[in-house]
From TrEMBL:
One of its GO terms (biological process) is negative regulation of DNA-templated transcription. Keywords: Repressor, Stress response, Transcription, Transcription regulation. It comes from the Bacteria. The gene is hrcA. The lineage of its organism: Bacteria, Pseudomonadati, Pseudomonadota, Alphaproteobacteria, Rhodobacterales. It comes from Gymnodinialimonas phycosphaerae. Negative regulator of class I heat shock genes (grpE-dnaK-dnaJ and groELS operons). Prevents heat-shock induction of these operons. This is Heat-inducible transcription repressor HrcA. One of its GO terms (molecular function) is DNA binding.
Length: 354
């Protein structure tokens, strides 16, 4: 069980209701909620002092905060996260919102780009927030590539195409992968990728890997025949060449150079395997995902939240996403079904055009 789940489980009925009422009041008004206001809406008739004590307990747990001692309470980032995960009641899409989206997106567009422009306008109009549209992935020549770490489990690759088009793709990085490793991968690729597509540069690197393996095999065979080395896990991609101790006393210049060359080739192989793994990673996620505050480094500086949902093509493959960016006090119960419906609508329109 997560820490959030444990906190939620430990709350009694009164604490749950006070917490929910504070967050709902804050999301509705954007201002802290006081104890006297809560006493008029709670299902249990209790004094304002009792409510204040409960709010202090929730503040101690890190779920609520107060601008100053005499003010009411408002949810912290952790509190908003727990509210979204454990208390949020997502309503049905209203008839007016559905009609507005259908009217805006229902007309034929000359191309997919025009369609997605209208998606962004429709979302902004319906939600009064900034819209985000991730377009279907392109297979075109690349000018520049960059990797950005968003969290321990999610990263972003930014692709700049030779025609100036910019595309962002979310992916789950390999376990333990560092930002410096991703920066090295980007530097390596940017020195070679201009004018090539992602798939063509991957094929080129994979061919380089195969060439290096063959070269290692040729160099290692002489060392093995002379008893200076032995393969561990022969035939496996992660096979290691174990060099025996007496090779440190080599006087033969050729064999010494071969050892150094093998070490360089292994280092090169390891780096290129990492890079091909980056190139093979795809977008992450399924369904609506809500990012709050600093959970999403792209929007943490502005204290914003992102509600985003992927859309699929006729083959049921995720090809893009639509979303809304706004303050952390978004009306999540209304925004989530709007974004979800828009994603489904775009998916159908994309499928029809393909």
């Amino acid at each position: 069980m997560t820490d959030q789940g444990k906190i939620l489980e430990d709350l009694n009925d009164r604490s749950r209701e006070v917490f929910r009422r504070v967050v709902e009041g804050y999301l509705e008004t954007g201002t802290p909620v006081g104890s006297r206001t809560l006493t008029r809406t709670l299902s249990e008739k209790v004094s304002a002092a009792t409510v204040r004590n409960t709010m202090q307990d929730l503040e101690y747990l890190g779920l609520l905060d107060s601008p100053h001692s005499s003010a009411g309470r408002m949810p912290t980032q952790l509190g908003l996260r727990m509210f979204v995960d454990g208390f949020l009641e997502v309503g049905d899409l209203s008839h007016d919102d559905k009609q507005a989206l259908d009217d805006t997106l229902g007309t034929n567009a000359s191309d997919v780009s025009g369609l997605l422009d209208r998606v962004g306008s429709a979302l902004s109009s319906a939600t009064h927030g900034a819209s985000l549209v991730l377009t279907p992935k392109r297979e075109a020549p690349i000018q520049h590539i960059e990797f950005v770490t968003l969290s321990a489990t999610q990263s972003l690759v930014v692709l700049v195409f030779s025609d100036g088009h910019v595309e962002n793709r979310l992916f789950t990085p390999p376990a333990g992968m560092t930002q410096s490793a991703m920066r090295e991968a980007a530097n390596f690729l940017n020195a070679r990728i201009e004018g090539q597509t992602v798939s063509s540069i991957r094929a080129q690197i994979e061919a380089d890997i195969e060439t290096r393996r063959r070269e290692i095999d040729v160099l290692a065979s002489g060392l093995i025949d002379s008893g200076l080395a032995v393969w561990d896990g022969a035939g496996d991609n992660s096979a290691r060449l174990i060099v025996r101790g007496r090779s440190n006393l080599l006087s033969d210049t050729q064999e010494s150079e071969n050892l150094d060359r093998i070490r360089q080739l292994f280092d090169d192989l390891e780096r290129k395997r990492d890079i091909t793994e980056f190139l093979e990673l795809t977008e992450d996620g399924d369904g609506v995902r809500i990012f709050i505050g600093s959970e999403n480094k792209l929007f943490s500086l502005s204290g914003s939240s992102l509600v985003v949902s992927p859309y699929m093509n006729s083959d049921r493959k995720i090809v893009g996403a639509v979303g809304v960016i706004g303050p952390t006090r978004l009306n999540y119960g209304r925004i989530v079904p709007i974004v979800d419906y828009t994603a489904q609508l775009v998916g159908r329109l994309i499928s029809d055009r393909s």
